[in-house]
Amino acid sequence: MSNHRNWFVMSTVSIVLCLTGTVFADFTDNFDYTNGPLAGKGSWQGTTGHANPYVSGNELILYGNKQIDTTYLTGLDVTGDNGVLPSVTVKVRQGSDLSSSGTNMWWRIELFNNLGNALGGWAGRDDSIFSYPASWASGTGIGNDLTGGADTVRAEIDFDAGEVDYYFNGAYSRTTTFTPSGSAVDKLQFRWDNDLFAGQYLYFESVQVAPEPATMALFVVGGLTIIRRKGKRTWISGKTV
Questions:
Q1: Of 134, 145, 228, which Cα lies nearest the Cα of 178?
Q2: pLDDT < 50: residue spans in the chain
Q3: pTM for the predicted model, two decimal places
Q4: Which domains does the chain carry?
């Protein structure tokens, strides 16, 4: 009986998804390329010449003593609809451990919308990662120490509210704001702040730009379909709470 019930619910959810007419884009990169500079591999574009970031052993390495070539993905066009929020998830792993007493950042991951406007992103060193608002103003970053294992950072973007919620290893970290504009995450870019940190490096295992998994959960209750949006429930059958 339980299996029949689960089949019914999943079938209903599938039908609801079809009826919405919404197709959600999804980009995931595990850096499973041949060794060499990231620029020019897969969909990655950018300048070349400094071999940084560099793919090695299906991981991406950033080095602190080499200028980071501006390397980016564009045309992602990952949007949200019907209460589903687009998100950016990055798996990062500490490499060296030389900058615990330092204050300077030497790398960034910048996010942009489909109008070319900044949304925010992350910056860091070899042993820590900081979330930043769209302004990237000095002193506005909030950081987390990397654990030495695989750490996951995630940004959920609400284009209607002009907000970005940041998470570190699943735990909520902070919310930043931007002037509401655009409707999609369109560009992700690695760039450098400086190249004066010899001996420092860190690894990135994957990046994903996709609808936020939790907000994709649909429930059928009493014939009404519910979509979870940032911890709230939205009835999409004519009633809201």
A1: 134
A2: 1-23, 101, 215-241
A3: 0.79
A4: 24-216 (2.60.120.200)
